[in-house]
Design brief:
By secondary structure, the chain is α+β, with helices and mostly antiparallel strands. It has a single domain, classed as Hotdog Thioesterase (Thiol Ester Dehydrase, Chain A, Roll), CATH 3.10.129.10. The chain is 24% helix and 37% strand. It has three helices and eight strands, in the order H-H-E-E-E-E-H-E-E-E-E. The strands form two sheets. The protein has a six-stranded antiparallel beta sheet. The chain has a two-stranded antiparallel sheet with strand order 3-4. A hairpin with a 3-residue loop joins strand 1 and strand 2. The longest helix has 17 residues. The chain is globular and about 40 Å long. The N and C termini lie far apart (30 Å).
């Protein structure tokens, strides 16, 4: 996404454990999300499945805005889990800008990166785009702040 992103703090074995626990979480499974880490700094959320009830954005077959916000939330939490060696990272702030209809497709993906990190919080940013078509314009962008749960 951007050269100003912060590289993952946790080593690969610890990130793999964080990722396995994240992908097994009830809400991640319920939304049909699947997380992954892409070196050196990107948390990626894709859809395992996209249920019909998730569509209807803009009165069309596009993904609805609530699911888009949930996807950014998941991506930001996953990005935080690569920064902090804790079981739970919480979202403190989330701001989404909807740019284009997010038409359902195989390449629909949320990418998130940490841009500033401190001991108790981390600033993150993300983009929803067609992962299969990198030159396509983004469908939404977001910024936020996450923190390790205490």
């Amino acid at each position: 996404m951007d050269a100003s992103a912060i590289a993952f703090r946790l080593d690969a074995p610890r990130r793999a454990a964080q990722l396995a626990a994240f992908n097994a979480r009830n809400e991640i499974v319920w939304f049909g999300f699947e997380g992954a880490f892409i070196e050196p700094s990107t948390a990626l959320i894709t859809f395992r499945q996209l249920e019909a009830g998730a569509l209807g954005g803009g009165g069309t077959a596009a993904v609805n805005g609530g699911l888009i916000a949930a996807g950014f939330d998941a991506a930001f939490v996953l990005a935080g889990l690569a920064q902090y060696d804790v079981e739970v990272v919480v979202t403190l702030e989330l701001s989404v800008q909807f740019l284009n209809l997010a038409r359902a497709g195989d390449g629909l993906a949320f990418q998130a990166q940490a841009v500033r990190s401190a001991k108790h919080f981390c600033f993150v940013r993300g983009v929803l785009s067609d992962w299969n078509t990198p030159t396509a314009p983004p469908m939404a962008i977001a910024t936020g702040m996450v923190a390790p749960a205490r």
